[in-house]
Amino acid sequence: MTETEVFMQQVIYGLSNGMIIAMVALGYTMVYGIVELINFAHGDVFTLGGFLALTIVGALGAAAVLDPGTLGEGSHWLLLFGLVIGAGLFCGGLNVAIDRIVYKPLRRAPKLTQLVAAIGVSFILVNLALFWGGAPMEVFGGGNAAAASKDFPELLEGSNLLGEESNVVLRLEDLAIFIVTIPLMVGLTLFVKKTRLGRGMRATAQNPIAAKLMGIDTDRVIAATFMIGGFLGGAASVMWSVYNNTISFQMGFRAGMDAFTAAVLGGIGSLPGAMIGGVLIGLIRAMSDQYIETRWTNVVVFGVLILILVFRPSGLLGLKQREKV
Amino acid sequence: MTHSAQGAPLLSVEGLVAGYGSVEVLHEVSLEVREGEIVTLIGGNGAGKSTTLMCISGIVPVRGGEIRFAGERICSAEGGVRADRLVGRGLVQVPEGRRIFPRMTVLENLMMGAYGRDDRDGIARDLEQVYTLFDILRTRSGQLGGTLSGGEQQMLAIGRAILSKPRLLMMDEPSMGIAPLLVARIFEAVRELNRTGLTILLVEQNARAALKLAHRGYVLETGRVILADDASRLLVDPRVREAYLGEA
Amino acid sequence: MSIATGRGFSLFSRGQLAVLALLAATPLIDLAFPSLQLSAPMRTVVTSAIMALGLNIVVGWTGLLNLGIAAFAAIGAYAFGILTCEIYPFQVGFWWGVVLAGAFGAFGGWLLGAPTLRLRGDYLAIVTLGFGEIVQDGLKNLEAITKGTQGINPLPAPSLGGMPFSGETPVRWFYVYLAFLAVIVFLCRNLEFSRLGRQWFAVREDELAARCMAIEPDKAKLKAFAIGAALAAIAGALGASLLSSTGEPANYDFQVSILALCIVIVGGIGSITGILVGAIVMVGLNNVVLPIATQAMQRAGIGSTGNVLSSPDNYKYLIFGLALVLMMRYRPDGIVHSRKAVRK
């Protein structure tokens, strides 16, 4: 492989992972934008999305899923979209429930109280994922070693899309990530810009009391925000699982930190910021893996996070301090 | 200012009690606004003027008494109509400090006022009315709300409220922190709106200007209504003159 | 530093004395019920309490959420390891090792705090979390110095006037640690009523008002960070000595920071006595009750490794999580005073 090819390969890895990170980052940034809470549990909602996807695959029969003969041509894509929607709705619903039960009663409490509660929720969800991993299904190891990583079957198999002789590999999974994430991001942008509920979200984020005085049902807006953020996280978890072929009950911590860093990098509260930030973090990770060392990559990402928070807390696209009464 | 024709009571507040945490701010406040009137609520800092408006708008929960709007009970200690539904009924507030949306354009801000409306033609008509009333908003329609001056933001907040199609427009300190020239302009606009038939409840610290504009007035002191009369009589009332008009 | 209790001289408050006395009596329980094997967990109670007391200075008294306190325990443990282990040239011995570990911890706290303490509360929390992860990965990756995942060992146990301590004398060892705790409780108590303590409270309640009273919030915060980190580092050093190894860097992960936070919050934020109780409750749950219950269920044939739900040990995260959520929801008084909170 030439230097350029090595670099191109990292760009592909970076973009693919970056799009997934961006989807998770959107969940952080949307919720922060509207209720000023770092939803620490978001990463673990993401984890549970992966576990649901694996459960569905297991229920359908992992072997059957993998055999192209049983499901027929194109069915893998259908299954993938089904998983994306299923995990998305599940994570969205879970996110809304968490908000209702835990965050909503604390809405007027000090910010740090809310953050500690969110950390608590995160730990509860980690434990639920651990239990789930011990489910007596074959895909979960039949109930043994709940804490072990679980293999996620290779849903999309196929040869190098750039041709067999190319040194740079573009897999079907890479393509699938773009096919799933780009329409979702475009859809989100249009939703926020064009629909009434979307305008209500922007208004509530900018001034909740004024939004109420405009006749906006802010409770509904907040619930919708958690729903959408959760949906994107769930969709991302399916893509993450399909891409990496493994899930574990603690995967949300890492993914969550990457995504939160991306949201801060882009400017927390900003949707395009989260998207750009996600892609940048994906690229930074890939380049660090290649040109520094894999084992230092997390340090690099956290270093980026701290440097941004210290030197440019408003991020790349963020606004200066929000006005808040 | 002479009496206008007095209509039926549009808003009536009776024995309103409210507060924050363990502090009670309003102790049985009662007032009434009739159709077509400009009523002003004056009083010093912390008298409870803004809290009264926030109770009427359903933002601050009510602990006692009741609020009726257009003959219907909208608020009492047992609960009431949710804040977001009140706007649709025509109970609209221009809040203190304006609270415009800083990262939306002037036009987007105005359209947020029409959030719950579906009558395109009506919205277009009301938008035109706002632009006629405050020409500067038309010029600035593409600019971000946060970049406007204080006076322009106040105009935007009023315009936004007009797009909510109010039957009763409540304004909280529209003159606060605004250049005197613009204050006159805004009060003139309030008068014009009232002439077109809009009922207005105006909260002000600038008691003189408010009483000159209004038909009737209430004086609020530490959470109680201590005076209620025609605005012209309040203007000459010695207690008001001493406490609020800075005259001995 | 003055003893400003206003009620005449006393080393400890009644509550503190009661809990310390209770701790001092635990070896008796161990004598009565040797099967409980309490001596090891009890020493962990002591080290955890010291770490939580350090965290309390930052979270409880100064109102800054630190999610990376375990990093300072790691710094303390590794400093202790490098300074005392026979494979390094220093070998300063147990006592100097602990003291210097505290100094390194304070330096680490200062290093992290200096550039970040101006950040808003929630951002600062995330920065401390990131710092915790960086320290962990750094220790793992710098194998040449830290021995990577093997940890540094063996490490010295305390010794006093030629009287050695070892695994065979767990009770004596426990009392040495308890003495550490008592000294630190005494210091914390004096800090609480000192000028510096009042500055911390002022900063916590209202930074702007504090500034008006000629308090420099950044300096006060930095001192809180450094002192808190020093205590955590001492706890780390004591813990390492206990294991005769620093253990692997993953022993100082986010979960450890959260355990310390749980101790502070469950015990009663800002209250020294509360934190001592919190340490007994949380560590007792984590290191005694859950393992014993797990063993008991396995012996009874109810628990099996094949069923994740049947092992009480697997409920750890759930218990931590519920503790945090329920405390925030139902006992929020006094919990995490943020500057913002007071204004609202």
Distinctive features:
heterotrimer, B: 248 residues, alpha/beta, Rossmann fold, six-stranded mixed β-sheet, 11 strands, C: 344 residues, mainly alpha, ABC transporter involved in vitamin B12 uptake, BtuC, two-stranded antiparallel ribbon, 14 helices, 2 strands, 68% helix, disordered N terminus, disordered C terminus
How would you describe this protein?
The complex is a heterotrimer of chains A (325), B (248) and C (344). Chain A has 325 residues and is mainly α. Chain A has 13 helices and 2 strands, in the order H-H-H-H-H-H-E-H-H-H-H-E-H-H-H. In chain A, strands 1-2 form a two-stranded antiparallel sheet. The longest helix of chain A has 33 residues. Chain B is 36% helix and 29% strand. The longest helix of chain B has 16 residues. In chain C, a hairpin with a 2-residue loop joins strand 1 and strand 2. Chain C has one domain: ABC transporter involved in vitamin B12 uptake, BtuC, CATH 1.10.3470. Chain C has a two-stranded antiparallel sheet with strand order 1-2. At the A-C interface, helix 6, helix 11 and helix 13 of A face helix 5, helix 11 and helix 13 of C.
Number of beta-strand segments of chain A: 2
| Poorly predicted regions of chain A | 321-325
Relative strand content of chain C: under 5%
Class from secondary-structure proportions of chain A = mainly alpha
Query: What is the C-alpha radius of gyration of chain A, as a whole number of Å?
Result: 20 Å
